[in-house]
Structure formats: C-alpha cells, structure tokens
From TrEMBL:
Reactions this protein catalyses: O-phospho-L-homoserine + H2O = L-threonine + phosphate
Protein name from the UniProt record: threonine synthase
Domain Tryptophan synthase beta chain-like PALP: 166-473
Source organism of this protein record: Cephalotus follicularis
Molecular function GO terms recorded: pyridoxal phosphate binding; threonine synthase activity
Length: 526
C-alpha cells in the first residue's frame, strides 16, 4: 500500500468503587450461582457486618477472586455437558468425541461442531437463562465477569473455573450510530457492536479465552500439548499470544510476511510468542500450520477448531441481551475464514431454541471484493464453490481465499435467510472514512460491513426503520496506516473523497488567522 511520509510527519508534528457486596442466586436443583451487587442498601449488609472473617470487600483480605470461586465450587458435577460431533451430521450419526480429546476433523475429514446437551439446558426456560445471564453482567465474580464466561453453561459447561484463562473479555459496547445512520442512510436504529474494543483489539478474544482455557485444562491432565499454534492475518495471533502468555503456555504463530499491520505484528512479539514470518499468504500459512499441528504436540488455535466458535457465539447472545432480548432485523458481519458468521448464527439459534427469543435476525456476510470466494459462491446460487487467490486489500485481516469454515458459513446463511455482499477497496475505505467522520474510529473490515449495509439500504432490501447491527471486528488503532494513506490521498486510483488532511501552516498569528477564517467561511456556506 502507498505510504504517506508527509502526512505521517505532519501528524507527528502535531504532537508538540463502591463496595461490592456478595450475594448468591440459587436456581432449582443447581448449585448457587455467585454474583455481586453494587447495591449498598441490600440485605447482605447485615450478613457482612456480622461475619467474623470479613476484613474488606466481599471476601477475606488474603483471598483472591479465583480462590473465592474455588470456595463456591459446586459439590456435585454440573448436569450440563458438551461434546464434538461432525458438523451438520444429522440425528443418525453416532460419531462424537470428548472435548478432552485432541481432534479437529471428523472421521470423514469434515468439520466438527461443539454440541450441547440441549435437553438438559431446556429443563430451564428462557426467562431463567435471561435472568441468569443478566445477573452476571459487569461483575467481578470469577469467571462470570467475562461476557463469554457469563454464559459458561452454554460454552464449556464442564470446565472447572480454576482452569479458565480470561481477561474479562466481551461485554463490548453496542454503539448507537446516530449520526452515521441519519446522515448517510436515513436510518434511526443503526448500531455498531464494537467487538474490537477488547483486550487485544479484536473479536478473537472471545474465542481464544475458551480455547486457551481448554488447553490449560488439557495440560493439567498431562495431555501432549506443548504449546498452541495458529496461522494468522494478525488478530488470531494477537489474541492467542496474549492469552497464552497470561497462562504461561508457549504460543507459536505463522504470519504471512508483509501482509499484516505493524500493530498486529508487534502484538505477538511483545507477548513472547515464537513468531514465524513466512513468505506466503494466509492460506499458505494455514496449510502449513495444519500439517505442523498433525506432527507436533502443538494444539491448533484457528477457527477450524470448533472450540473457538463457542466463545465467539456469545457476541450474538450479548447483542440480544443489550436490546433487552429484542431481536434486531439484521446483523452484518465481515467474513474471511468464515468461522465468525457461523458463530453468530449459533449464538442466535441457541437463544431461539432455548426460548430466550422467538426468532433470529437475518445475517449478512460482507467480503472484500479482492478476497471474495463466499460472495462468488453465493452469486452462483450456491452451485459452485471455488477457492480464490486473495488479492491485497486494506481489509488485510480478511485477505483469505480458501476459508476453512466455508460449510459452516453456507449453513448459517441458508438458515437465516442470509445475504452475501462485497466491497471494493474504494467502497470500504470511503465507508470507513465516513464512519470515522461521525465519531467512530473503525477498522477497514468494519468498512466492508458498512459498505454491505449501504448497498442493501440503497437497494431497499434494508428499510429505513429496520434495526440493523454492524459487527465491528477489530479496533481502528490497529490499522492507522490505511487511514494515513487515505487521508493523505496517496492511494493509486482512489479519489479518497472523504479525506481530511491536516493543513500545514507557519507559526505566525496572521497566517493561522487566515487559515481559520477561510475554514469558518467554508463551513458557514455548507
Ligand atoms: C478484523 C477481522 N474481521 C473479520 C474477520 C473475519 O472473521 P472470520 O475469519 O471468522 O470470517 C477477521 C479474521 O478473519 C478479522 O481479523
Ligand atoms: N483474521 C484471522 C484469520 C484466521 O482466522 P481464524 O478465525 O480461523 O483464526 C486472523 O486474525 O488471523
């Protein structure tokens, strides 16, 4: 991509709690579920005052939150369970694997899925689950303070809370895009789910906490897992290396040389991962890591491993929760390796099947036109899937031509009356700049999703009154070079219509006044 030293230089030169009281919710035959309350006036005051061991806050001074969770550990094992089954295998299949096995593919070589014991979960009605999940939001109780682990019973019900590796990820902001919706789309119910405002700056944290927690458990069980590895366009490796570092587990990452942002490259380096920069693209790295993980005791962390999707699906549940369990009309997700679109489908579908909501939203998967195998497949009427050679795109994290989760994505889209859209480089960069001009600071992948929204709104498929949620997958700060290129208008064959370059001006009062007067006049005329 073109760089812009002048803009970069001029940009650089511009730089001259109340007590938590503990209470327990007991639900039917289940062990107590701990949560905390910020309410200073609840009935627990009396209990806290009369307890001889209380020294500060809700637990003894020498006890940490993990130890506290251990103390509350249920005496009997959970009645919920989950296992691997071949993806979309139907009722006739008997093939299944324990989550404690190291297996990524079914016997026939197909994808796997984590299947929950829905009968056990259905013993509780939708209201029960809604209340339980709502009661855990924003707490510090281990591990429920995480937006992922607040849904533990639906994620990894059997893992001991002691084994969980979490950064209290999730619970990300659902941003009402008031100005963008009104100004560019005539919409008043447009929302952006900021999954990138997260521990390592992308939605990958949601899946990685689950995968690394399970690895932590496997290692404690003395299973042959020396370390964890992934191929990455930048975000998976950032999340993997951070969660592994926090648990003291070695991580190994395969990155396509010169194809990821500097911020993304620095993340695994800083977190102590073993980083291989390989002279190929993401699809080449993916092929290599699959071969390597079948030979060496390195556990595969890409979304081919269905554990990841169990965490990622909680973003869908969170969206419903944030709308007080009302279902939006549309959810738009940028797609690359295509695990996330299925994760969203699965999260919504579980909420429907377990009675939390009565329907699911229509899903839209948005791809960069330079890396669009799903879009081409959709346009062929799902007749002819061909992997493509992905070309360079500013949406570099979705520069993927041979997505491993293609079958999962097709299933999700077919079962949600879904749509696939694409965005050219100019479209995605303009959308990103327009969104930023209304107060966001999004990544180019979110620009891809916004382009899909703009196209579907312009064609009337999405109506002005529809409630739409655009999933923002990474933090814009990871992709500042693309913004520098755009705002300095140094991108070949791109008009950069919404560029806003800084004005160079001498350190002279008169000259500064001239520039400002011109600016104010220009604004007044608008
Ligand atoms: C920022 C960002 N957005 C979107 C995606 C696409 O997600 P998926 O690969 O699950 O389709 C990725 C990774 O691929 C990503 O890193
Ligand atoms: N964008 C991803 C690509 C790999 O996807 P995964 O979900 O299969 O790990 C990345 O950041 O590496």
């Amino acid at each position: 991509m073109a760089s812009s030293c002048s803009l970069f230089n001029s940009l650089s030169s511009l730089n001259h709690k109340p007590h938590n009281h503990h209470h327990q919710i007991t639900h039917g035959p289940f062990p107590s579920i701990s949560c905390t309350s910020n309410n200073n006036h609840n009935n627990n005051n009396a209990a806290i005052q009369s307890s001889p061991s209380v020294t500060k806050h809700r637990r003894a001074a020498d006890e940490n939150i993990r130890e506290e969770a251990r103390r509350h550990r249920p005496s009997s094992p959970t009645t919920f369970s989950s296992k691997y089954v071949p993806f979309n295998s139907g009722l006739a299949s008997t093939e299944s694997y324990s989550l404690d096995e190291i297996v990524y593919r079914s016997r026939s070589g197909g994808l796997l899925d984590v299947q929950h014991d829905m009968e056990a979960l259905m013993k509780f009605d939708g209201a029960y689950w809604r209340d339980l999940f709502d009661s855990r939001v924003g707490r510090t109780t281990w591990p429920y303070g995480s937006g992922v682990w607040s849904k533990k019973e639906w994620v990894l019900p059997e893992i001991d809370s002691d084994d969980i590796v979490s950064a209290f990820e999730g619970n990300s902001n659902l941003f009402w895009a008031e100005r963008f919706g009104k100004q560019f789309l005539g919409m008043n119910d447009l929302w952006v789910k900021h999954c990138g405002i997260s521990h390592t700056g992308s939605f990958k944290d949601l899946g990685m906490t689950v995968l690394v927690s399970q690895v932590n458990r496997l290692r404690k069980m003395n299973r042959p897992v020396f370390g964890v590895g992934c191929a990455s366009t930048g975000d998976t490796s950032a999340a993997l290396s951070a969660y592994c570092a926090s648990a003291g587990i070695p991580s190994i990452v395969f990155l396509p040389a010169n194809k990821i942002s500097i911020a993304q490259l620095v993340q695994p380096i800083a977190n102590g991962a073993f980083v291989l920069s390989i002279d190929t693209d993401f699809d080449g790295c993916m092929k290599l890591i699959r071969e390597v993980t079948s030979e060496l005791p390195i556990y595969l962390a890409n979304s081919l491993n269905s554990l990841r999707l169990e965490g990622q699906k909680t973003a869908a549940i969170e969206i419903l929760q944030q709308f007080d369990w009302e279902v939006p009309d549309w959810v738009i997700v940028p797609g690359g390796n295509l695990g996330n679109i299925y994760a969203f489908y699965k999260g919504f579908k579980m909420c429907q099947e377990l009675g939390l909501v009565s329907k699911i939203p229509r899903l839209v998967c948005a791809q960069a036109a330079n890396a669009n195998p799903l879009y081409l497949y959709y346009k062929s009427g799902w007749k002819d899937f061909k992997a493509v050679r992905a070309n360079t795109t500013f949406a570099s994290a979705i520069q993927i031509g041979d997505p491993v989760s293609i079958d999962r994505a097709v299933y999700a889209l077919k079962n949600s009356n879904g749509i696939v859209e694409e965005a050219t480089e100019e479209e995605l960069m303009d959308a990103m700049a327009q969104a930023d001009s209304t107060g966001m600071f999004i990544c180019p992948h979110t620009g891809v999703a916004l382009t899909a929204l703009i196209k579907l709104r312009n064609s009337g498929v999405i109506g002005p009154m529809d409630r739409a949620v655009v999933v923002s997958t990474a933090h814009g700060l990871k992709f500042t070079q693309s913004k520098i290129d755009y705002h300095s208008k140094t991108i070949a064959d791109m008009a950069c219509r919404f560029a806003n370059p800084p004005v160079q001006v001498e350190a002279d009062f008169g000259k500064v006044m001239d520039v400002l007067k011109k600016y104010l006049k220009h604004k007044a005329l608008k």
